[in-house]
Amino acid sequence: MSWALVLGATSGAGEAIARALLVDPGLDVLVLHRGNHPAAAAALVAAAEAAGRRCVERVGEAGTAEAVDEALDALAPVIGPGGVGVVVHALACASVGSLVRGAPLGAVRIERTFAAMAHSFVYWVEGLHRRGLLAPEGARIIGLTSPLGGALIRRTGAITAAKAALEIYVRHLAFELGPLGHRVNLVSYGATTSAALEHVLDDSTQGRLDRAIQRMSPAGRRCTVEDVARLVSFLSRGEGGWFNGATIDYSGGEVQSLYDLVLYPEEPP
């Protein structure tokens, strides 16, 4: 039996991805979450039952080495040898704030951000590999990021630095695990409406972002979590098997027209 392990699966892209994988390519799902969205977790279990699949959930931390070991020790008997065909890292536990000026984040919050959004990707992959839980025919291991990591947005220094580290981890893991048939990739998608983005931006900034994206995106709209989920389903199938070590631009061209927006803010494209 092949499982999809989705870390951070009860909100945003993680939830949409878990739902999509139940149907395409048709996998049972293991979901880890912190218990902040119980209604969404229950709805995901119901969606699995409706699709004729299983959904096993575990509530707890997933962003530290100790939490990873504890979770995998508990889940290994459920998974069975070589049972994980897809891993999706959608953890979004991060701290917003300045690095130096005003009231800076400080070491604890910076380290927690890096642990959840970058280091834990390695901990999960290493733990699954060491226990023999990754599918012997080759697992698809997928992280999530944003093209805004290449931009300067105030108070997001720790987040964007962690995402940069995640990109390097993906490349090295792909190099190490590629000979075993596994594929490791990073999906860089445009700004979706999500609790994570609301954590970074206040209401007035959200409104400005909506108006800007209408100008920046060739499609005239934001990326949706369903868009992201469809790409992950594709990467999970055989057709996506030649992607490896890649940071896949799935922004819909959103960032390409950034300078046009700055130069001609009032002129329609």
Quick tags:
alpha/beta; 46% helix; Rossmann fold; globular; 7 strands; 7-stranded parallel sheet
Kindly provide the radius of gyration, computed on alpha-carbon positions and rounded to a whole number of angstroms. 18 Å
Overall morphology: globular
How much helical structure, as a percent, in the residues? 40-55%
What CATH first level would be assigned? Answer: Alpha Beta
Short description:
The protein is α/β, with parallel strands linked by helices and 269 residues long. Helices cover 46% and strands 14% of the residues. A 7-stranded parallel beta sheet has the order 3-2-1-4-5-6-7, sandwiched between helices.
Describe this structure in words.
The chain has 269 residues and is of the alpha/beta class. The chain has a single domain, classed as Rossmann fold (3-Layer(aba) Sandwich), CATH 3.40.50.720. Helix content is 46%, strand content 14%. It has helices spanning 12-23, 38-50, 65-79, 107-130, 157-177, 195-200, 203-216, 225-236, 258-263, and strands at 3-7, 28-33, 55-59, 84-89, 140-145, 183-189, 247-250. The chain has a seven-stranded parallel beta sheet with strand order 3-2-1-4-5-6-7, with helices on both faces. Strand 2, helix 2 and strand 3 form a beta-alpha-beta unit. The chain is globular and about 60 Å long. The model has no long low-confidence stretch (mean pLDDT 89).
